[in-house]
Design brief:
By secondary structure, the protein is an all-alpha fold. It contains 16 helices and no strands. It is globular and about 55 Å long.
Length: 372
């Protein structure tokens, strides 16, 4: 909760006080691009947690984390000019955003070890600390007038400090003793298989915002980016449910029942958040100004997208936990159709949002059927 609130504060401060609409659009789009480059980190945490549950040697998992980090460094070097060209952003600003991706891999390895051990109290403090260290420097950069590039660079520096904190905590907690290493094939390829599952989730949650500069004008991109905050709230708010359930999902004896319980809880939270967003819509122009009037009747739709994404996330996490990553292929097909519709048909804020809502609903329902 603390980590998520910190990032919401960053978006609120950026959009309402320190950046104009077009600058905020650039900032939000590059943050979404960084999330795509952070996919290996998300997959790495899930693979490490799963293998800890199954009894893999934690020293081996640390080596896998280091290897994955090096591959992400290469990926960032290749992706930076391509993302800058596609998103129409400066190379330096783009690098300031994407440079956090390798650091996230280091952070994820440590968090995965804590998650797999079931050290949820320690993990909760780590998640909160990482959230504060990554977000507060961004606001500080905005206060001194550093703009989008300065804010993104400050966030990357905060991620570097976070990585140090995570590994200090992991070292102090100490390695868990286990009877035998039952999973002997874990390696970077395991992370790659899990990465395509995490990638489709991140792409599904970010593609509408990433494509918005291609089909909307600068003002509308800023409006869509602010609406996407509601999506992020509904998506990330139930994240802790998946974190706690994940070790159970990796346990063959409890995985099926745990999946049903996790989906039920996450869906219930999503319903509440969607209704709350509908009631809060009229407050948008009061808080953010008349430039965001278009969001008043649409805020619930953005929240619904996030709620459906949260359900999809739980189902895909179950696929990683049980090493059944092929179930994500159906979601890839849905995302491909979504991209096509946005680029060829949707030409407004409501058009892009409605396309994303339909796509994630179909993906969540279809993946749930395949994963059961």
């Amino acid at each position: 909760m603390v980590a998520n609130v910190c990032m919401y504060v960053v978006h609120l401060a950026a959009s309402a006080r320190y950046l104009d609409v077009s600058e905020y659009g650039e900032f939000a789009v590059l943050l979404s691009a960084m999330l795509v480059l952070g996919v290996p980190a998300l997959a790495l945490q899930n693979v490490v947690a799963r293998e800890v549950v199954l009894g893999c040697d934690e020293r081996r998992l640390r080596r896998v984390g280091a290897q994955t980090t090096l591959y992400v460094v290469v990926l960032v070097a290749v992706a930076t000019p391509l993302v800058a060209l596609l998103m129409r952003t400066g190379v330096v600003t783009t690098l300031a955003a994407l440079g956090a991706a390798p650091l996230l891999a280091l952070i994820a390895t440590g968090q995965g070890i804590l998650q797999g051990r079931g050290e949820f109290r320690t993990l909760s403090w780590v998640l909160a600390a990482v959230g504060i260290l990554r977000s507060m420097p961004i606001i500080g950069a905005f206060v001194v007038g550093a703009g989008p590039a300065g804010g993104l660079l400050a966030g990357t520096l905060g991620a570097a400090v976070s990585a140090v904190v995570v590994w200090v905590v992991v070292g102090r907690v100490g390695e868990r003793a286990h009877a035998a290493a039952t999973s002997g094939t874990v390696g970077v390829l395991s992370v790659v298989r899990a990465s395509q599952v995490q990638l489709v989730l991140i792409v599904a949650s970010s593609m509408d915002l990433l494509l918005s500069p291609r089909v909307l004008d600068a003002e509308s991109v800023g409006v869509y980016a602010l609406g996407a905050i509601a999506t992020k709230v509904a998506f990330w708010l139930p994240q802790a449910i998946g974190v706690v359930f994940y070790p159970r999902l990796a346990d063959p004896a409890r995985s099926r029942v745990s999946l049903r319980q996790a989906v039920t809880v996450v869906a219930g939270v999503g319903v509440v958040l969607t209704l709350a967003a509908g009631g809060a819509g009229p407050m948008v122009p009061i808080v953010f100004g008349d430039g965001y009037d278009e969001l008043v009747p649409l805020l619930w739709l953005f929240a619904y997208i996030g709620a459906a994404l949260a359900v999809l996330q739980v189902v895909l996490l179950s696929a990683i936990a049980r090493d059944r990553t092929r179930v994500a292929f159906g979601t890839w097909i849905v995302v491909a159709i979504e991209v096509t519709v946005i680029l060829t048909v949707a030409g407004s804020v409501v058009g892009v949002a409605a396309t994303a809502a339909v796509a994630v609903t179909v993906a969540a329902a279809g993946t749930w059927v395949l994963a059961r």
